[in-house]
Amino acid sequence: MPIPWLTALKVIPWGDVIEHAPKVLKGARDLLNQQRQRRRETAEPAPAPDAAVIEAPGPTPPELRELQQQLATAREDLTRLQQTQDQITQTVAELAEQNTRLVAAVELLRTRTRLLMGAVVVLAVVLAAWYFSAA
């Protein structure tokens, strides 16, 4: 059974979507800028692989080595999470921009459809007048 796309498009409150699209785009851009700013504020130079494990002079208790390994793993995880969060934020911003372009395109299509329907009605009236005047 085909999906009634025309019905679905009529149900969507396009006026509200068009009205709020710039706000969504602005919010996404603000989110992206905040994310970048936080990243700059919290950015630390990544420790060199040798610097991740601090060697204490003399014999080191195994617990300290374990803690150092856990710290290095946690730093790597944190770096991966920050990269993932940056990618997600960038994706949200891109989706908001695409949404804005999509809404603009739909509004253009709605306008063109209305003009076309008007032209069809005018053409039908002209053809009907011509047909009945010739008969």
- Round the mean pLDDT to the nearest integer and report it: 79
N-end to C-end Cα span? 45 Å
Number of helices: 3
**What would you report as the Rg, rounded to the nearest angstrom?**
30 Å
Overall structural class, as computed from helix and strand content, comes to mainly alpha
The percent of residues in helical segments reads over 70%
Low-confidence stretches: none
Largest sheet: none
Task: Explain what the structure shows.
The protein has 135 residues and is mostly helical. Helix content is 81%, strand content 0%. The chain is built from three helices and no strands. The chain has helices spanning 5-11, 14-42, 62-134. The longest helix is centred in the last third of the chain and has 73 residues, at 62-134. The radius of gyration is 30 Å and the shape is rod-shaped. The two termini are 45 Å apart.
